Amino acid sequence: DSQKVSDEIPATSDPVEFDKLTLVWGKPRQPPLGFEEWSTFLDAEGRIMDSKALRKRIFYGGVEHNLRKEVWKILLGCYEFDSTYAEREYVASIKKKEYETIKCQWQSISLEQAKRFTKFRERKGLIEKDVVRTDRSVSFYDGDDNPNVALLRDILLTYSFYNFDLGYCQGMSDLLSPILFVMKDESESFWCFVALMERLGPNFNRDQNGMHSQLFALSKLVELLDSPLHNYLKQADCLNYFFCFRWILIQFKREFEYEKTMYLWEVLWTHYLSEHFHLYICIAILKRYRKKIVDEEMDFDTLLKFINELSGQIDLDAALRDAEALCIVAGENGAACIPPGTPPSLPVELLYSDD
């Protein structure tokens, strides 16, 4: 139905007119998906009968908190949409054993061995330093000797052995924290994190190619969707879009309160309108503040400071509605701005089979 919507939008080259349109076209947000409605998507064996309809429903409303544990594992691809309850249980038991095996690898490293294993010591040190600073304002992680903080550390260390080439980078604890908060289970959190890192791992590559391709796509999309902003940023020598780095790296994790971040993530994970919907959210936010950015003639440093200070100030529902409208207006031209393989693209064999 995005085609129908875009047909109804009058073509306009006037950015002011276009701004009015974006605010009209995003559909109203819905209440979150609850247990009763969720069961209508499943057959007697637990298979999801219409994954597209489910993804659309979550895109517009998110998921009730107590249901997230079940739904996130499917959205992230730990389980297939058409898997049965029995299959999911079987996969979970196999994966639990696999997790224990990998965890044992680093747990078995003796002090003597660690002395001669610089990479391990460095990673362990970095992880230990990061987890004690992660989401301590959330009661689940607050206080001294919190066992959940220890779990964050264990899962991240295990991941650094599972994906030894990537290892651990700052920001990963931010991505794991809501997952553990929802799953409350070490092995399930680990495999959800693995699935998320299949998509976002390139954000943390040493050469930053994953980040560069997203920032490049963002600049192309702004050029397409907001030429006055693009022209200003070009003139201010800000077209590298590094001021949006944090937004993209950890998926707006530090921009919204905890509950809102979880809601935003499940919307993004549906890949309903675009697997790069987070880029349209970036544009929606920048568009809202374009007048201020241009009027105050912000240079890069001022802009970076301004963007970082927006943390906690952004209206998420409005940003989602605007981003939806921008995504529909951009259509195929928008998709063409994004180089193939740009994160969070999934490896081809993992993509949804029913689209």
Automatic annotation (TrEMBL):
Q: State the compartments where it is located.
A: Cytoplasm
The membrane spanning regions, by residue number, are: none
Q: Which GO terms describe its molecular function?
A: GTPase activator activity
Example GO CC term: the record gives:
cytoplasm
Domain of life, per lineage? Eukaryota
Specify whether Acetylation is a keyword of the entry. Answer: yes
Which InterPro entries does the UniProt record give? Rab-GAP-TBC_dom, Rab-GAP_TBC_sf
Q: Where is the Rab-GAP TBC domain?
A: 62-272
Where does this chain mainly localize?
cytoplasm
In this record, what's one Pfam family? RabGAP-TBC
Q: Which UniProt keywords apply?
A: Acetylation, Cytoplasm, GTPase activation, Phosphoprotein
PANTHER family referenced in this protein's UniProt entry, alphabetically? SMALL G PROTEIN SIGNALING MODULATOR 2-RELATED, TBC1 DOMAIN FAMILY MEMBER GTPASE-ACTIVATING PROTEIN
Describe the task this protein carries out.
Acts as a GTPase activating protein for RAB7A. Does not act on RAB4, RAB5 or RAB6.
Oligomeric form and interacting partners? Interacts with non-phosphorylated form of RAB8A; phosphorylation of RAB8A at 'Thr-72' disrupts this interaction. Interacts with ARMC12.
In Swiss-Prot or TrEMBL terms, this protein is called TBC1 domain family member 15
Give the originating organism.
Sarcandra glabra
Q: What are the top taxonomic ranks of the organism?
A: Eukaryota, Viridiplantae, Streptophyta, Embryophyta, Tracheophyta
